[in-house]
Amino acid sequence: MKKIISLLTLAFCLSVSLVFAQSNGVGTNDQFHGPVGLQMYSLRSIAQNDVEAAIKLAAEMGFKYVEASSFYDLTAEQYKALLDKYGLIAAGRNYGWNEFTTDEGIQNILNEAKIFGFKYAGIAWYGHSKEGMTEAEALDAAKKFNEAGKKLSEAGLIFVYHNHGYEFRKLENGTDETVFDVLIQNTDPKYVTFEMDTTWVIFPGADPAKYLLKYPGRFALMHLKDLRKGVVGNLSGGTPVENDVPLGTGQANFPEIFKAAQETGVKYYFIEDESPSFEAQIPQSLKYLESVKW
């Protein structure tokens, strides 16, 4: 009888976990809550020839949320119509920095945000020295990010900076701090938030969980990427796309990262897989997320 009760209890717990995961969306479980979306740049090789096919594939993989990249040959309205057709929601979009430097560019971002209904707009690259972003460059960038963020905030939007690895140059002040600390410490939380790309923290030798815990509330978004084991990084902000591997098979300590992320206020998690094997790897990553524990 005890054995039967134990089996029934186990079955009940598994069913509750399944229901929770399904209600909270793809790639989640009773401990990792997500929500998990897809950075559409992952499907660029498909979208270059057929944008609708890429959007359809994202929906078939089970995603509800996406982070938009290029619209290719479509207008924002046409792209939004395709997202609606397949039940997808754009939670944000990354732009080039130049879009934020003119009134016309800012207005275009505001217009697109109104069309899609997203509130996160940002950049994934900023000009810097070849040897990695300097402290002076970071201070200048922070000033400009605050200015752009203030303009966006007037329309209810939030400026986002996505790290790309070159920001982890060590400061020459005898501490463990990096240029990334300078960026975070000199941007106003009212106007600027951050999107942590896990690979582009690990690649230059830093610890994602450490930064999440050091700056609670500063990271609203996250790119979920894993770096192939054995790869030694640097401050270049670049590595072959073949070094993107399924989540849980590379160098990232995701249980530790997710525990910190959920404690410190990350709102959306976007899988970004730039490898040629993305069609096979993204489902593997989702399966890992549905089982990850800590």
Can you lay out the helices and strands and say which pair or pack?
Elements: H1 2-24, E1 36-39, H2 44-47, H3 51-60, E2 65-68, H4 76-85, E3 89-95, H5 103-116, E4 120-123, H6 135-153, E5 158-162, H7 179-185, E6 192-197, H8 199-202, H9 208-214, E7 219-224, E8 226-227, E9 244-245, H10 254-264, E10 268-271, H11 278-289
Parallel strand pairs: 1-2, 1-10, 2-3, 3-4, 4-5, 5-6, 6-7, 7-10
Antiparallel strand pairs: 8-9
Helix pairs in contact: 6-7, 9-10
What would your notes on this structure say?
This protein is an alpha/beta fold and 294 residues long. It has a single domain (26-289), classed as TIM Barrel. Helix content is 41%, strand content 15%. The protein is built from eleven helices and ten strands. It has helices at residues 2-24, 44-47, 51-60, 76-85, 103-116, 135-153, 179-185, 199-202, 208-214, 254-264, 278-289; strands at residues 36-39, 65-68, 89-95, 120-123, 158-162, 192-197, 219-224, 226-227, 244-245, 268-271. Strands 1-2-3-4-5-6-7-10 form an eight-stranded parallel barrel. Helix 7 (179-185) links the parallel strand 5 and strand 6 (192-197). Helix 6 (135-153) packs parallel to helix 7 (179-185) and helix 9 runs parallel beside helix 10 (254-264). It is globular, with a radius of gyration of 20 Å. It starts with a helix and ends in a 5-residue tail after the last helix.
Q: Could you report the average pLDDT, rounded to the nearest whole number?
A: 93
Order of helices and strands: HEHHEHEHEHEHEHHEEEHEH
CATH-assigned homologous superfamily: Divalent-metal-dependent TIM barrel enzymes
Task: Give me the count of strands.
Answer: 10
Number of helices: 11
Biggest sheet, strands in spatial order?
Answer: 1-2-3-4-5-6-7-10
Assigned CATH architecture: Alpha-Beta Barrel
Alpha-beta content class? alpha/beta
Regions with pLDDT < 50 over 5+ consecutive residues?
4-22
Radius of gyration: 20 Å
Number of domains: 1
- Overall CATH class: Alpha Beta
The portion of residues assigned to helices is 40-55%
How would a crystallographer describe the biggest sheet? 8 strands, parallel, barrel
CATH fold annotation: TIM Barrel
Approximately what portion of the residues adopt beta-strand conformation? Answer: 5-15%
